[in-house]
Design goal:
Elements: H1 3-25, H2 28-83, H3 87-196, H4 210-235, H5 242-246
Helix pairs in contact: 2-3
């Protein structure tokens, strides 16, 4: 690849990235408002042009009125001069009146041009105003649609974030449930082992292994035998144990007691 081709390619990539960055940064609502503002400025210029042409037309009309008045005055002067047998003055007045009439004719042409220009600009102003009003309606519609779409996008993005967050929470809950089930299974298995005797419950009374239990039983038997031998020694042979008397059993009466 030549150096020129590489430079063109790099330039194209740069422009593409710049356009993408501008597209992300650009707010179409601001662009529409700016365009509407420029159209209003153009409409204002056209209206000022119409006003300027109308002002010029009015000025020409005033000048034409003055010239017509001057023409009438000269005509009257010519009549008075003839009545006074001053033909020379009458001729002078009519000559001046002819010049005034020529000025009036020129101004009539100028007035016609200004009037046509005014009508043309007025029509253009009305058409432009209609377009500006139509653009304003469309602009507001587009802005409202864009704002609604922007809000919907933010809502969707929020829901997407919530969904991702809830997915993480769901995984944590699932792990907690799995751990709980595992602990419950272990606790149940220990209970079953204790119940079956495979695992001694050290917390139960007399707990311990089988050897300890047998030794404890032998020790208990030895204690009972020793206590019994002690009682026999205290009571003597042939005597009724006090325990029997306390239990309510009567001793046999002798001949003297009878």
């Amino acid at each position: 690849m030549s150096t020129m081709s590489m430079m063109k390619r790099m330039s194209g990539i740069f422009r593409a990235k710049a356009n993408a960055a501008m597209d992300r940064a650009e707010d179409p609502r601001e662009t529409l408002d700016y365009s509407y503002q420029k159209q209003l400025e153009l409409l204002q210029k056209v209206r000022r042009g119409v006003a300027d042409v109308a002002t010029s037309r009015k000025r020409v009309e005033l000048q034409m009125t003055q010239l017509e008045q001057q023409s009438e005055k000269l005509h009257g002067q010519a009549q008075k001069a003839l009545a006074s047998n001053r033909e020379d003055l009458a001729r002078e007045a009519l000559t001046r009146r002819s010049g005034v009439q020529q000025q009036i004719a020129d101004m009539q042409g100028q007035h016609a041009n200004l009037q046509a220009e005014e009508e043309k600009l007025t029509l253009a102003s009305r058409r432009l105003q209609t377009k500006v009003e139509s653009f304003r309606t469309r602009k507001e519609t587009i802005k409202a649609t864009y704002t609604a779409a922007e809000a919907q996008t933010k809502i969707n993005e929020a829901f997407t974030g919530i969904s991702e967050e809830m997915g993480d929470v769901g995984l944590a809950v699932q792990r907690a449930e799995d751990k709980t089930a595992q602990m419950q299974a272990r606790a149940g298995a220990v209970d079953e082992l204790i119940a079956s005797g495979a695992l001694d419950d050290v917390t139960a009374p007399g707990g311990g292994d089988d050897i300890s239990r047998e030794l404890d039983a032998l020790s208990a038997d030895s204690s009972v035998e020793a206590e019994l031998a002690k009682l026999k020694g205290e009571v003597g042979p042939g005597s009724t144990p006090a325990a029997s008397i306390e239990a309510g059993a009567e001793a046999p009466r002798t001949e003297e007691q009878r």
